[in-house]
């Protein structure tokens, strides 16, 4: 019964946009429905440059990958597509009869996806399968490449280093996890020979890319509460790095920043989010667990501005594109706020599929993926 109970709770806590979780989050934090969209005077405009469709994402949180001349995207059923970066035209399409749970990662001439069976597939940039490697459990984090090593995170909390040339296992970092965790698609960030990753229980750590050995570990957040559910304080998104500073945020926990090399604490704030962070220049941007979008001073954590008009709309992580702070929501709207003051300046609706992945800056505009499989290249001005 204990195992079944844990499995049931884990299912309820899947933070991939399912309606069960959205309802649970609403009842736990605010009994009201998602905020209605407010009227405002548009002072900017989204313009579509091109769009394509790669197929429904399914139950998992999939992402696009961007290289110098290509956009890569994948459907939940394994259809991997290369699109021309300038036009959106399909260059090639590779069909794989798998359930994709992580992707797309790109780097070092490889295009990478992961499956529910723990398989990592590495394709060359012309769409041919280079190698496949089986890991310990389903692949949830987008594979990353650095210095000839592919780094992959699996659902059991392991991080594996694979040789990029042939997929051979080089090292595995393992750690114990609490009895109850949030199933998330948090991956890793590679910077200057280190791999940064957040874990269940609010821990942020850095390991060596070369051999997987631990360099430092520190607490972003401490579990609190009387029940297992209340004590969940997991880092469910990627850390972010700017200059010599690395920051992470925990669901039902804190936002904290550390010195990147040694892990010395810099500052922390009591802010909860399952979405992630964005750093640009001197500011850090976050959409919290309730949909409040804030700009903070990245050196002190003090609030610069706050926008509360997207409450409970299941907003994506924010991105900064030029002078705009951009995020999507559960109804498929993409919103732009003023970077300086935080008020709405533009809005448009795409294909109606939820926008849950972070927009990517591309050629002075942005690249957006919907759960329906729509890939949109937009400008905003």
Question: What this model shows, in words?
Answer:
- It contains 2 helices and 32 strands.
- By secondary structure, it is mostly beta strands.
- The chain has a domain of 123 residues: Lipocalin, CATH 2.40.128.630.
- The strands form 8 sheets. It has a 4-stranded antiparallel β-sheet, with no helix packed on it.
- A hairpin with a 5-residue loop joins strand 16 and strand 17.
- The radius of gyration is 20 Å and the shape is globular.
- The N terminus is likely disordered.
Would you summarize the structure shown here?
By secondary structure, the chain is mainly beta. It has a domain of 123 residues: Lipocalin (Beta Barrel).
The CATH architecture of the domain at 62-184: Beta Barrel
The CATH C-level class name of the domain at 62-184: Mainly Beta
Assign the CATH topology of the domain at 62-184. Lipocalin
Structural class: mainly beta
By DSSP, the count of extended strands is: 32
The poorly predicted ranges are 1-28
* Widest sheet, order of strands: 1-32-31-30
Strand count, sense and barrel status of the largest sheet are:
4 strands, antiparallel
Our measurement of the CA-to-CA distance between the termini, rounded to an integer number of angstroms, reads 56 Å
Helix content: under 10%
Radius of gyration (Å)? 20 Å
Number of helical runs?
2
